Amino acid sequence: MFSKIEVNGSGTAPLYNYLKKCHHGSDIKWNFAKFLVDKNGIPVKIYDPEVEPNAIVDDIKHYLLL
């Protein structure tokens, strides 16, 4: 659970392959990228590391209340 995993490249961990589907499979810029998953477990958005968590509150509310 706490071992290092790959988030990009040929050795990408399955979780990150699944999460990156919402970003068209593009590489993650940095490990502080944020993924928004809807209440059904579907990745719906990815946010760059520079985006503050408070900036996505409206999106969180939107996708959880659908």
The number of E-state strands comes to 2
Strand content: 5-15%
In whole angstroms, the N-to-C terminal distance is 31 Å
Chain-averaged pLDDT: 87
Structural class: alpha+beta
Kindly report the spatial arrangement of strands forming the biggest sheet: 1-2
Largest sheet: 2 strands, antiparallel
What global shape is seen? globular
For this entry, give a set of tags.
single chain; alpha+beta; 66 residues
How would you describe this protein?
The protein is of the alpha+beta class and 66 residues long. The chain has one domain. The chain contains 2 helices and 2 strands. The protein has helices at residues 14-19, 57-65; strands at residues 34-37, 43-47. Strands 1-2 form a two-stranded antiparallel ribbon. A hairpin with a 5-residue loop joins strand 1 and strand 2 (43-47). The longest helix has 9 residues, at 57-65. It is globular. The chain starts with 13 loop residues before the first helix and ends with a helix. The mean pLDDT is 87.
Outline of this structure?
The chain is an alpha+beta fold and 66 residues long. It has one domain.
Topology:
Blueprint: H1 14-19, E1 34-37, E2 43-47, H2 57-65
Antiparallel strand pairs: 1-2
